[in-house]
Structure formats: C-alpha cells, structure tokens
Give the backbone structure.
Amino acid sequence: MSLAAELAITDAGLKRSDIDGVLCGYSTVSPHIMLATVFAEHFGIRPSYAHAVQVGGATGLAMTMLAHHLVDAGLVRHVLIVSGENRLTGQSRDAAIAALAQVGHPDYEVPLGPTIPAYYGLVASRYMHEYGVTQEDLAEFSVLMRTHAHDHPGAQFQEPITVADVMASKPVALPLKLLDCCPVSDGGAAVVVSRQPTASARVRVRGCAQAHTHQHVTAAPALSELGAKLSIAKAKASVGVAISDVRYAAVYDSFTITLAMLLEELGLAEPGEAAALVRSGHFGRDGDMPLNTHGGLLSYGHCGVGGAMAHLVETHLQMTGRAAKRQVRDASLALLHGDGGVLSSHVTIFLERVR
Amino acid sequence: MIEPPADWTHGHAAILYQCCSSCRRVQYFRRAFCAACGSTKLDERPASGEGTVYAAALVCRAATQETAAHTPYNIVLVDTKEGFRMMAHGARDLAIGDRVSARFVPFAGHIVPYFEKMK
C-alpha cells in the first residue's frame, strides 16, 4: 500500500504532506476497525479527513466518487485513495474462499455451503437460460482478458489461453470453471483525487452514480432490474453523456459472467450479444471499445479492493497516453463500472481527459 | 428480539416464511417487521415446500473440509409456490423451470432443504 501510495503521489506531482484526505478499502487478510488511520500513521501523514470504505468489489470506485465529492465540496484538497492485500500469500486458499463466502446470508445461505463462484454460478445459470448464452460464450471473456494481460508486465497470468482451455479447466461452481474465475492475488493500488489539476496529464471526473438493489443473491431482483442499469442511467443523465461518447471501458470482471452481464446492462452490448462482440474484436486494444487492457481481475489479478482499482489505474494510464504496448488510439472519455457483492452494489464513473 | 424460528435454519424439518398482515407481502428472511411497509404485524407460516427452479450452480470446489466432503452438490434458487425465493440444495438432474418439492437432508452438521423434481 505504501509503495502504491508513494507512486501515486509522485505521479501527481505532490508531496506526502500535501495529502489531507485518506480513503482506504477494507482488508480480509488483516481486518481492522480503523484501517485508514492505521495506514496514515504507518505512511507518516496526518490527514484532516480519513476513513475506510466497504462496498465489496465496488469499493475502489465508491472511494473515487466520494473523493470527487469531498474535493468538490472544498473539504479537502488532495485525497489519497489506497488499498492492498496479500490475499494469495497472507492466508490459505481455503481461508480466502471461506472468508469471501461470508457475504452470503448467515442463516439462509451460508449454511448451504455456497462460495462466491456458486453465487455467481447461480446468476450465470439464469442468464444463460434467459439469453441463450453458452459456456463457450463466457469463455471468450477469459481469453480476451488473458490476451490483454500478456502485454502487462505486472499481470499475474500472462500465458495466452484458448476457449478450449477454459472449457477444459477444473469445474468450480458449474457453469463456472476455474478459468471463468479471477485468481486470488497479492497487490495494491493507489490514486490521488485533487480539487485542482496538479500534473500536465489531466483527467477529471465527468460524472458518477451508484445503485444498491440488494445484498444477498436470494434477494436479488430480476435480471432485467439489476443495479448496473440504474447507476449508469443516473450517471448518464446527470452529465449528459451517451454510450456513443465512450472511448474506453473499465468494467469489473470477477467472473466471466460478471463481465458479460455488466457490459450488456451498461449498454456496451445488446442483451446476450457481448460474447459475439468479443469474437469480432470490438473490445480488443484496437477495437471500437477497448476493455480492461491490463487484463482485468481475470488475468491481471484480484487482490481485493486494489484489484478493482487496477482498472482505474489502467484507465488513467490510457487516458494520459502512458500505457506503453497496450496504448489505445483514443481514451478521451472512459466508462468505469464496479460491482460489489453479488451484483448488489454498483458504481459508475465517467472520466474525461482535459486538455 | 423475536424467538428463533422452528425451521431448517434451527434444525427443524420445515421452511417458514412471513406474511404481512397490513400489505400482504411475503418475506423469507425473517425480521420483526415487514421490509416492504414496516408493519410489525406479521404472520409466520409454514411453506408447502413446492416451487420452481429459478437458478442452479453445481459446487465442485468447496470452502471448508466439512462441505468439501459433500462435493459436488447442487445449490439452487427456488421460487416457491407461496411467492418468495429461497436458496437450497437440489438434485443433480434439476433444470431451470422444473417443478420441485423439498425434503430435508443432512449437510455439514445441519439439515438443509433439498429439492427434487415433483413426481
């Protein structure tokens, strides 16, 4: 976390002492009731505003949205958003799986022995049933994320894979197989949100919104009424942005089904058509809508809150023309979307490059 | 606090739900109030155990030793005849849309509802 924070502050052209706000995510490996001040003390800063935020996989974008409002309201000048966990080496795989499964209902779900892949496997089964999507369709998203991760030196998995590899991978919670699932990773990420531009490469929050429809999959609304649709509708309406304006997409991809569903709900693909767009190259680096060019959670890795923040970091690199081999032609307006729980909490953000 | 329910979550071979006396909405997650209208006048009722499969996922990789002993096991969401959705276990041959009914089976130290195709 300290390393990521140092890199972000330096990249913003600031000193640690400039940071007057700290937002940090939660940690499953090292939980603490006051993680933001634990970090601030460790890092050596005394912010005037600090606390942790917990919205599952949507935490990174929720903190970004909050930081935007905090600086906009004039409460603080520079907010450091930081998160990181050693989810892979800090605990056993069983412990990681068991800890995450606890997002289920303690009385009505957890005693049945579900896992996070099982919750999403349920959603996948219904989605496949309603829209005629196949397991091979879902596999396309793993293949795409791996193709993208190949060009990111920091990605956890870089070896190319095929649809056949995904289909042959170990069953986890069918219809989801091992390569439909993001890995458990170590890592961290940090971002600085400031009231005024601090560097020559300028990116600003154009608009953002949230929607929270439920916590537990048992209580989820119909597929057609999930939160992504609500949050993007609010975000679009508040700032007058249309999907046709978007040039780069960063979408939460804990599982292949998550990515497929979110792309379709956000309006980046027609219902049931996202996989066909992957096959056509639409979401590739040189396609019309480059998506998660760092490889996403599926291949870059998932270290918890920092994992989903990697989407934000990659978007910033793309928007400021510093994505090296992964650079896309035009990332002037980006759509970011995060999902927490089991499609429970949604945060949508539009970022815009400012000349 | 309300008394613990005499249902499968507390070791009894039953599925209970609540029906609001004011707005008539049903809810499965038990509360001291109706989540739709806030009324505290709730009727607790036993469910028939009949319903339709809404979704299914076959768990092959479990999180704990106790649950791993049961793999693979099918986790299902069932839309009950009474109008609420619940999570349970189900037979391996279940498909979405199947009409099902529940019995209760042991699982990792509890009993859990287990749905099978209606005969």
User: Anything to note?
Assistant: The two ends of chain A are 30 Å apart (CA to CA). The first helix of chain A runs from residue 2 to 11.
